[in-house]
Amino acid sequence: MKIWANCIVHNEENFIWFAVMSVIDYADKVLVWDTGSTDKTIDIIREIREIWGDKVDFREVGSVDKYEFTKMRQAMLEESDCDWILILDGDEIWWRDSIEKVISRIHEGNIEGIVVPMVVPVGDIYHLQEQAAGRYKILGKTGHLSLKAFSKAIPCLHVDLPYGKEGFLDEDNHFLQERKKIIFLNAPFLHVTHLKRSSSKRRYEKFKYELGKRVEDKFKFPEVFYQTYPSFIPSPWLKIEGLEKARAQLLTPLRKLKRRLI
């Protein structure tokens, strides 16, 4: 059973090392295609490739708009010569236990896809967004959820809709989440989408001025954060401070109120 990870990036220097390294032991190949990064992202991916060689397929494909992004996602899907796809973004870092659960469940068989929960920091790595902020509705659940792995054997598997709304569909143009053999697995990953992901401007910025609930002292972050990494890799342990923290504290109750009113 071959499993390939698909990863499309743009200015992800703060977390791309940790994202790729958190899954690379478990994937047979990792496709990382860069869409015009101007920060350290390309250097970081090249460093990973120095370690892992051809296990990392790295390409610089140039800038794309939200429609071209979908076409590139389709091209990546078609080039993946494997049995299962693991979707990996540059802001997604896996706990070892979680990725092992996903891989193990894939090998058990009789399923077509896996939906997992996300743990979402906001403000900085030490503060987590409330679950009520998660609005994805999948398999009868609502929250921070995502379809992260699926079988390539699904008939007419393809990608449609522009970036931000794009999804994987089947022969009936139904989203994979609607298929009967898609399951929920309690194997969370850390999704740092709302943190600062680069020192350069990002094409689709999702940083939020908001401060979540402080993690408990016993909270354990993904193991890859504690491992040795090159000195030019930005530290994941930075705290929100000063005016940025004050702004986040001011806006947090307003954001929570807005979520409850919508």
UniProtKB/TrEMBL annotation:
**Domain Glycosyltransferase 2-like per the UniProt entry, residue ranges:** 8-129
InterPro entries in UniProt? Glyco_trans_2-like, Nucleotide-diphossugar_trans
Domain of life the protein comes from: Bacteria
Q: Do you know which PANTHER family this protein is assigned to?
A: GLYCOSYLTRANSFERASE (PTHR43630:SF2), POLY-BETA-1,6-N-ACETYL-D-GLUCOSAMINE SYNTHASE (PTHR43630)
UniProt name for this protein: Glycosyltransferase 2-like domain-containing protein
Organism in which the protein naturally occurs: Candidatus Daviesbacteria bacterium RIFCSPLOWO2_02_FULL_38_15
